[in-house]
Specification:
single chain, Serine Threonine Protein Phosphatase 5, Tetratricopeptide repeat, elongated
């Protein structure tokens, strides 16, 4: 969701706007307190400002307030309240809130576990460009959860997230190319995406790259001739009497 959010030249200018009731300034000030940017980190103060903006129906503040309840920062951890505020923002089209609400439905935290609802919110967020939702939607298609299994759709959503530098999506897209599932098999494309994921620390990508390079090295050694110019023996032969 592309929305225009106001900015302020100084913290004091932002604070004055927030105290005057501007919900975007209230949300921005809450983010400062949540992250410790330009102020001493204070989760309770962050929640205070998020709540003021959320009560004015600001979707970004509602999403942040849901996050605070989800993580127990500034308020007691309460997944039901997290779901409430994520839903308020999700229904206004906020992609982060849609993804987070999908996670709660997938895990059954604060709401009854429901893969169909999770899929609904992942898709809504994915279509608005949220990379984690795109990755999760790809997993649903690859596993055939709720939807008809489709490796082509899985690869499509992995690519959308991979191009936004989400490492798990890059890894899964690389594996799609390695196995030819949903895309034409292509070792070079597979290595490209696995390397990009591995450089970000993705352990699955690092493992698969290690296996690939070890296998390639063994194959090369088996193909090399010995010192006599003959290929290496591949089995034992009984000597003639």
């Amino acid at each position: 969701m592309k929305t225009s959010r106001r900015t302020w030249a100084t913290l004091e200018e932002m604070r004055r706007a927030a105290e005057a009731g501007d919900p975007q300034a209230q949300c921005a000030l809450g983010v400062c307190y949540l992250t410790g940017q330009s102020v001493r980190q204070d989760y309770e103060e962050a929640v205070k400002w998020f709540r003021r903006a959320a009560d004015q129906n600001d979707p970004v503040a509602q999403c942040y307030l849901g996050y605070c309840y989800q993580s127990g920062q500034g308020v007691p951890q309460e997944f039901g309240q997290a779901a409430r505020w994520f839903r308020e923002a999700a229904e206004q089209g906020d992609p982060a809130a849609q993804f987070n609400l999908g996670v709660l439905y997938e895990t059954g935290q604060g709401v009854p576990q429901n893969d169909a609802e999770a899929l609904k919110w992942y898709r809504a967020a994915a279509e608005r460009g949220e990379p984690q939702a795109q990755f999760n939607l790809g997993v649903f298609y690859e596993e055939g959860r709720v939807v008809t299994q489709s490796f082509e759709q899985a690869a499509l959503w992995y690519r959308a997230a991979a191009e936004q530098e989400l490492a798990p999506a890059q890894c899964n897209l690389g594996l799609c190319y390695l196995t030819g599932r949903g895309v034409p098999q292509n070792k070079q494309e597979a290595l490209k995406w696995l390397i990009r994921a591995a450089r970000q620390g993705d352990k699955t990508a690092q493992h698969n790259l290690g296996v690939h390079y070890a296998t390639s090295e063994v194959a090369t050694l088996l193909e090399e001739p010995d010192a006599t110019g003959s290929p290496p023996a591949t089995g034992s032969e009984e000597s003639a009497d």
